[in-house]
């Protein structure tokens, strides 16, 4: 029956007994320093790493690539990478790229230490240079701080890398230290599986509280319907905020209490003044990255009604009628108390249940304050004391060991309640428990303990847990791990002696049994594409769910720690997801194609995949020649050779090796360049006149072949219609998996066209044939060949137009082009040749030889009067085709001379009084002639000196240039004058050297002379008489006027 009691409970003795045993109690016990030492060792192993600097001045580090910020300063990313490699939670050391963000994180968590007030430990982070640089503390000895730093500059090498450094502990360079949070990890019992909105209430229509992010580590408080109430990290502050998150976004790592069990207060309350509602159970700052304090969730006016769900760290978690939830300080609200009067209803919720026993246990060990219980109804056995026996009585009632709790009388309410202290028998004076006990999740073990004295007779012990959601304990000391985390259990003797132990609940190690990847064989992609691979595991509650991603060929496709694949170049790479133990794996095959930017110019045969057949154009060498498939060996068939020409980084032209003016072309199928390019058209050969249909791209496929596409119509590709000989080649619809579009480029020898000697024929009266720039009369003429001329045919000897090479009839230069086959014969054409002489040149004494039969053709040289020449063939109009020694340089030339200057009768030799010159006599050689002795055979001075000696026997005193002879002879006693006489020497002053000739005879107005080196093109030292004779010009008859003006100024005559 319900009764209302007003009893004052005295608990002072209990407080005094327990105060020492719970001193220093910390639910979140510190973890080992080993991970932080490991981090320092990892950092030490990286020493010597140097970032890569590109030619354009940008830089790349592997730590920036890991972080996703390649090309940025990377000292903070290096620290984050080392922590990640050491498996240190982001809640202990943040993942950060900015030194100022890292500093704010540590300051928000009260883990920042100024440099002057702190001696750092291994694994601490050291911030330097006004917080613009960060490193890892390796050790601190003798007031020297030794560090390992990324992005550290070496002025000697001029490089940035990972380096060891040290500083005096008092150095002004040290800004401060960030201390890893070593006490937080035990709270984490879940992880966010994806990004999700967080809410004030377990309702998506309620107010929002920012977001949780994928892989956020969570402290899950309880499950409320389809939502979890969690503490989740806020930005980079290092602190947590509380909100409700949809269950599909949360993966618990252990059992989670229901809200019914976790909400253990459930009392109406009212604010006692203006009350601040916080995001977490703390008044400390919650600084965002921008520096704004976000700690306050809402502000409530005085007397605002609210409902208290539970307490945490001296704060109540409340909700208001307008949908606000959050933490308020315990003293900022007043709980509404109603005494139910029900015996055993310790928490005043009008029912007796396990919560009442738990609340009473927590009160007895000072976990709860006295205002949380009803004292009068807590003394179950009416012994005037509130102790463990009363809690046990409630437990027995709940499980049915006793059927009812005793009723009270009004007299009983005046009993003073005091702690129990048995006086009969031997009491326990001390209890010893292990300091720390580790238990696996769902494991049950018995706690070992010792009591003193060992002969105590009042040895009944009472066990309880400070957090049943983490560990439960039975009356006889059996503990069971319920949730990953840490808490304390307490043991109390009947006379109030108490002891405690920290219980750490850890996960049973559950191996991953299976890994599945969502994309095991994705379609082939182009290089530079990213593919996100996602791995799922079985079972989902595996202890270590970490997956390591690796690539069989990172040069083709690399993968980061989150399964993001970046493709780089053509080929195939197998991406493997491996469990932490290495025992379970799953793979995905990534196929990468690449647009090729460089293929070397050269000769190739294009071989179809899976065949021994090649692109071929056996049909001919003219526009429109069809391209088909034909078997071959990749070298011997010239019609299968293609000359590849690179235009720029991506585009290429594909020329026929046998017909270099033709190239691979998509035949538009119409009559105009305006006819559209489209898939399905034929591939043929055509001259270079349609760049849109003739410029090609090469795609290197993942399996090592090439797909060839038009730059202007990339949805198509060169395709074979079949694999048999003669199969048509057309422009098919692009498909990188179609083997009929895949070609291997086979390097082949350069095509050398066969060459055949031939002769020009059938030119009839015209006497010559045009040579054209291409195989047809529509091509321009680039020159011509004469009837009977020997030429060379290059390549085919059967085509209608043959490729030819020979001497251009117009100027003698070698030309190469095309001539119709009707004018070519492969047996020599016999052309009649006759000896003839040049005559009738008059006073000029010579005649021009021209490129063609007419004065409109350019002169290519000349012949002297009386010179013997060869006439080739018959008369061409009024012109003979002639051949002979060019009077200018002695080279044999062939051209045309007018018939008036050609005679087939040898002219009679002129009669002179002097004998003809004997150029082989001593007068002309080195025995007598001073100019011969100086190797000036052939010079005019050589001949004039020799002819004088030959005719007169005199040895002239002249030894220098011709223009000096007149004065030298005069000075040496020779007579001189302006009138020509027989056996005199004519002297001219033209140029730097002048000229001399021997006057053989004077006949009235005519003067007959002999001379050497007249009107020659060049003259070099001549060392033999044979070569000198070449320059001898023979007899000439000139008028006296012509003598005066023929070589500059006539100085006069030397009389012999």
SSE blueprint and pairings:
Blueprint: H1 12-18, H2 34-45, E1 52-53, E2 59-60, H3 62-67, H4 75-85, H5 99-108, E3 112-114, E4 125-128, E5 133-141, E6 144-154, E7 159-168, E8 174-178, E9 190-192, E10 196-199, E11 208-212, E12 217-224, E13 227-233, E14 240-246, E15 250-252, H6 259-262, E16 267-271, E17 275-278, E18 296-300, E19 305-312, E20 315-320, E21 325-329, E22 333-335, H7 354-364, H8 388-399, E23 430-432, E24 436-440, E25 444-446, E26 450-452, E27 461-465, E28 471-473, E29 478-481, E30 485-493, E31 498-506, E32 514-517, E33 525-526, E34 530-532, E35 535-538, E36 547-551, E37 557-559, E38 564-567, E39 571-579, E40 585-595, E41 602-608, E42 613-616, E43 628-631, E44 642-646, E45 652-656, E46 662-666, E47 683-687, E48 696-700, E49 706-710, E50 716-720, E51 729-733, E52 743-747, E53 755-760, E54 768-772, E55 781-786, E56 790-794, E57 801-807, E58 814-820, E59 824-825, E60 833-838, E61 846-850, E62 859-864, E63 868-876, E64 879-885, E65 892-898, E66 902-903, H9 930-933, H10 940-952, H11 965-971, E67 975-977, E68 984-988, E69 995-1003, ...
Parallel strand pairs: 24-31, 33-40
Antiparallel strand pairs: 1-2, 3-8, 4-5, 4-8, 5-6, 6-7, 9-12, 9-15, 10-11, 12-13, 13-14, 16-19, 16-22, 17-18, 19-20, 20-21, 23-26, 25-29, 27-30, 28-29, 30-31, 32-35, 34-38, 36-39, 37-38, 39-40, 40-48, 41-44, 41-52, 42-43, 44-45, 46-47, 48-49, 50-51, 53-56, 53-59, 54-55, 56-57, 57-58, 60-63, ...
Helix pairs in contact: 2-4, 7-8
